[in-house]
Every structure is written in C-alpha cells, then in structure tokens.
Amino acid sequence: MTNQGFDPLKTVQNIRDGVNRFIEEGLSSASGAQVIAVDMYETAQSVVVKAGPLIGVQPEDIDVSVTGGSLTIKGEMRPEDDVQGATYLRRERKYGPFARTIPIPIPINPEGATADFKNWLLIVTIPKAEQVKTRTINIETDAPPTASIT
Fold first, then answer.
1. Element (H, E) at 8
2. What is the domain extent for residue 42?
3. What is the pTM of this model?
C-alpha cells in the first residue's frame, strides 16, 4: 500500500525553504533586533572584538559599552533612500536595530577600552586587567605537633 499524499520532492523543498527562512530571519533576537556577527581574539595586552559588517551605519549611530565582563554593541541600520525612477528587483539587506552583548572570558580593564570603525567593521580593543599575583599562604595551627611512635 502506497501513501498517495507523500511527495518526497515536496518534502525536500519544504526543508530547503525552512533552512532558507532560518538563515534569512534566524539571525534576529527575540526583541526583533538583528544580531551582528563578531570575531574575538586576545593579544598579550588586550582583547579585540571585530563586529560587522555594519554596511551603511555611521559611527555616531553605534553605542558601545563595557560593563563588568561583557561588551555591548547597539545601533541601527537605516535603509538608503529609494532610487528615483527605479523598480527594485530584489532587496535583501536587513534594516532596523541591532544589538549584541558578548561576554569576555578573561579579566579586562574597561577604563582603557577604545573603538575604531574601519571598512564597515567596528573594532573594539579592551586592555586586559593586571593579573592577580599568586601568594603562598602558610597554614598556622594551635595543635601540638603529632608524636611519632618508635
């Protein structure tokens, strides 16, 4: 007995459409704000976070803050003015607010943080905190020394 309603090609197409929707819409947070991509690495002196590309965003439209052990980047991608006399055949770039809070996994010094905007990438450099020096602690006790049995 065959299932007349089952179409394997339609199933594959539905899976493909679902994956495409995830890729197109899945990079937004629950609040509707877009999530920007980041790369984070450390050097001997600092932690560097590169965020973007933030195409069409002006540096003055980006808020960057470092609190405790995390970096927050917020802003808004605004659409360009429509081209007069043109009919768009495709518009894929996303517009609207974006936000991302990234935990920094090592101790940092927020006071020395800097941010640069180059080639549509936001580059945030945060100095590492001075490492706490290791201190050996002697254990003191009031108990008399243990006697040895001979």
1. helix 8-25
2. 30-81+93-127
3. 0.63
Please enumerate in sequence order all residues whose Cβ is within 8 A of that of 96, keeping only pairs 6 or more positions apart, or say none: 32, 33, 34, 76, 77
What CATH number should be reported for the domain holding residue 47? 2.60.40.790
pLDDT at residue 20 in the model:
61
Q: Is residue 103 one of the residues assigned to a domain?
A: yes
Average pLDDT value for residue range 79-87: 81
Query: CA–CA separation, 22 vs 88, rounded Å?
Result: 24
Distance CA 132, CA 36 (A): 33
Name which of 38, 45, 74, 41 is nearest 57 in CA terms. Answer: 74
Domains in the chain, number: 1
| Sheet of strand 62-67: strand arrangement | 62-67, 70-77, 96-103
The whole-number pLDDT of residue 24 equals 47
Lowest mean pLDDT among 2-16, 60-74, 84-98, 104-118: 2-16
